[in-house]
From TrEMBL:
Record's protein name: NAD(P)-binding protein
Residue stretches making up the Amine oxidase domain: 74-357
Coiled coil: none
Pfam (any one): Amino_oxidase
InterPro entries: Amino_oxidase (IPR002937), FAD/NAD-bd_sf (IPR036188)
Highest taxon of source: Bacteria
C-alpha cells in the first residue's frame, strides 16, 4: 500500500483511538477494559500440555477401536463424514477442544450467530467431487441443470450487497477501485486480470488444469511448478506490476487467504488465489459464495452431526506409535481426568504439523511448515453502520486500514439497516516474523485489543460512535499454514501426502493452503485410504 495511505491510516487510527477514550469517559469496565467482552481462543493449556509432554501416561487395559481419527478440525470432520457415508461405524474421532471445527468455529449472542474464523465457502470447482457430494447431502444443492451443473439453494448464497470498499472517503461496490485510477494504473490492472484469466484457463502438459481446487489436482507441469520457487512479490516485480493501488489490493488478497505478505508466499500461491477457484454452478452462480451467520461453523456442525456419538470432544491425543501391524494411541479425557490406551488398526492424523510432530514424531518430520497468527473480533453494535456511497455489504474493507475489515454476521438473516447486529472484524498479523508476532499477540490484553478494534471501526464508520456495545476477541496463534516459497516441493510435505498406512495424514497443511476445500479433500482421501487398509475399500468420492 502506498506510503501516504499508510501515514493517513496511522493518523486517523490514532485520532479515533483518542475519540474512543473521550467517548467512553468514565464508562469503562471495572477491569479497566473500555467495553464488555472476553479474550478467547483455542485451549492453549491443553495444547501446551501435549507440546511439553505433560499429560498423564495411559494406565489400565487397552481399548480396541479399528480406526481412530486424531483431530476434529475440518479435515478430521471430513474424514469422519466420509466414513459415515461409507456405512463404516467402527471408529472414534478425538478432539482436544470442547467443540470440534478447528478454525471453522462460531458463536452466538441474542441477535445472531457469528464466526470465530472462516466465514464462507466459494462455490466449489467441478473437480471438488466429494465436497459437491456433501453439499448435496446437506440440502445446499437442490438439483442440476441440463449440463449437470449443480443448482444451489439461493438462501445459502451470499445475499446482495456482497462486498464494498472504502476508497478515497467513499464506499463503492466491489473490492477493486473503480475511480481515481490513472490511465497507467488502470492499464496495469487490465493486464493483471488478463494474465490471471489465462492462468485460469491454462492446462498443463499432463492434461490437468494449471490451477484448481483442491490444489492436489493441479498440474505438475514444470511451467507452473517453477512458480513455487519464487515469491509472489518477486514475480510481480519481474512482470513489471508497479501500480500502487493494484499492489495494495494484491497485498490484501494474500493476507486475506494466507495471512501473509506477498513477499512471504510463493508466486504459485499468489496466482492460485485468482486462478485456482472456478466455481461450477448453474444459473451463473459460479462466482458466488456460500455463507451463513456462523460462517463455516455451519458446515462443521453438519459434519459433526453425521458422525454422532463417535465424535469425542475434550480428548487430547497425546501419543501415536506403531506396534507391529497396529497403532497404539494414548488419549487423555479432560472431563474424566483420565488417560487410556487404544489399539487401532489405522489412524488418521487430522492435525496441523505443529501438533503432529509432538504427538506422532515417527510420522511427522522437520519441514517448512510455518503458521500465521490472526485476531478475530465479534463486535456487537446497537445499530448497523452505513457511510457515504454504496450501502452496507456482507464484506466491508477500507483501503486505508491495516485490518482486513469486517463481515456483517447477520447479513444473511436481517436487512434492517437501523437494527442491532454483529460485525466480525479480521486482522492478519503478517508484517514480521510469525514467532515474534505470535508472542506479541499473546502479550496484549483485552483492553488494548478492544481499543485498536474500536479505533479501526470508527475510522471506517464514524457513525458507530456510541453504538459499540461489546467486543469479544479471539486470538489464533497458529491460524493457518503459510504457503511459503518452495513449500509445494518440500520433502516433508510430500512424504506426509504419500503416507500409506497404518497412519494417514489429513490436514490443509498438506496443501499449504488453509482453505476448507483443501482440508475437506485431505480428510476424505485419508478416510478412503484407511478403509482400503482395513480391507473395506469403497468407490472413491474424489
Amino acid at each position: 500500500m502506498r506510503a501516504d495511505l499508510w501515514r493517513r491510516r496511522d493518523v486517523v487510527a490514532a485520532g479515533m483511538a483518542g475519540a474512543v477514550g473521550m467517548a467512553l469517559g468514565g464508562c469503562g469496565q471495572a477491569d479497566g477494559t473500555p467495553f464488555p467482552g472476553a479474550l478467547l481462543g483455542p485451549d492453549m493449556a491443553r495444547g501446551h500440555a501435549i507440546r511439553d509432554g505433560k499429560l498423564p501416561k495411559a494406565v489400565g487395559p487397552e481399548e480396541r477401536i479399528p480406526l481412530v481419527i486424531a483431530g476434529g478440525g475440518v479435515a478430521g470432520l471430513a474424514a469422519g463424514w466420509r466414513l459415515a457415508e461409507a456405512g463404516f461405524a467402527d471408529f472414534a474421532l478425538f478432539e482436544l477442544e470442547d467443540v470440534a471445527g478447528g478454525n471453522a468455529r462460531g458463536g452466538a449472542n441474542g441477535v445472531t450467530a457469528f464466526p470465530w474464523g472462516a466465514h464462507y465457502l466459494p462455490i466449489p470447482n467441478r473437480e471438488a467431487r466429494a465436497l459437491i457430494h456433501m453439499l448435496r447431502g446437506f440440502g445446499m444443492i437442490t438439483g442440476q441443470d441440463a449440463e449437470g451443473a449443480p443448482v444451489y439453494d439461493p438462501f445459502q448464497l451470499c445475499a446482495d450487497l456482497e462486498e464494498r470498499l472504502l476508497w478515497r472517503g467513499k464506499w463503492q461496490e466491489g473490492l477493486v477501485p473503480t475511480t481515481g485510477l490513472s490511465p497507467q494504473d488502470a492499464a496495469q490492472w487490465r493486464r493483471f486480470d488478463a494474465a490471471m484469466e489465462a492462468f485460469r484457463r491454462a492446462v498443463g502438459r499432463d492434461g490437468r488444469p494449471a490451477f484448481t481446487s483442491p490444489s492436489a489436482l493441479s498440474s505438475r507441469d514444470e511451467t507452473y511448478a517453477a512458480l513455487d520457487r519464487i515469491s509472489f512479490a518477486d514475480w510481480l516485480k519481474a512482470e513489471d506490476y508497479t501500480a500502487a493501488p493494484l499492489l495494495a489490493h494484491l497485498r490484501y488478497c494474500t493476507r486475506d487467504d494466507y495471512g501473509s505478505e506477498p513477499g512471504a508466499v510463493s508466486a504459485w500461491a499468489g496466482i492460485h488465489y485468482f486462478a485456482g477457484r472456478c466455481g461450477w454452478a448453474a444459473d451463473g452462480a459460479g462466482e458466488s459464495e456460500l455463507t451463513w451467520p456462523e460462517g463455516n461453523a455451519r458446515l462443521a456442525r453438519l459434519m459433526a452431526g453425521r458422525i454422532g456419538a463417535r465424535l469425542r470432544p475434550r480428548h487430547s491425543v497425546a501419543h501415536v506409535a506403531r506396534d507391529g501391524g497396529d497403532v497404539l494411541v494414548d488419549v487423555f479425557d479432560h472431563q474424566a481426568g483420565a488417560a487410556r490406551r487404544i489399539r487401532a488398526q489405522a489412524v488418521v492424523l487430522a492435525m496441523p504439523d505443529l501438533v503432529a510432530r509432538h504427538v506422532a514424531p515417527g510420522f511427522a518430520g522437520t519441514s517448512r511448515f510455518s503458521y500465521a497468527p490472526w485476531v478475530v473480533a465479534n463486535v456487537a453494535v446497537s445499530r448497523m453502520p452505513w457511510g457515504p456511497g454504496a450501502g452496507l455489504a456482507w464484506d466491508n474493507v477500507s483501503s486505508t486500514s491495516a485490518s482486513l475489515g469486517y463481515v456483517v454476521a447477520n447479513h444473511q438473516t436481517s436487512s434492517a439497516a437501523d437494527g442491532p447486529g454483529v460485525l466480525t472484524w479480521y486482522q492478519a498479523l503478517s508484517q514480521g516474523d510469525p514467532v515474534t508476532l505470535r508472542k506479541g499477540l499473546l502479550a496484549r490484553g483485552l483492553g488494548e485489543w478492544q481499543r485498536e478494534i474500536a479505533a479501526d471501526l470508527l475510522a471506517m464508520n464514524p457513525e458507530l460512535e456510541g453504538r459499540i456495545e461489546r467486543i469479544d476477541v479471539w486470538r489464533w496463534g497458529h491460524a493457518m499454514v503459510r504457503p511459503t516459497v518452495g513449500f509445494r516441493s518440500d520433502p516433508a510435505r510430500m512424504a506426509a501426502q504419500a503416507m500409506n498406512g497404518p497412519v494417514f495424514r489429513a490436514h490443509s497443511d498438506l496443501s499449504g493452503l488453509s482453505l476448507f476445500e483443501e482440508a475437506h479433500y485431505h480428510g476424505v482421501l485419508a478416510a478412503e485410504r484407511a478403509l482400503a487398509h482395513l480391507g473395506r475399500g469403497v468407490e472413491s468420492l474424489l
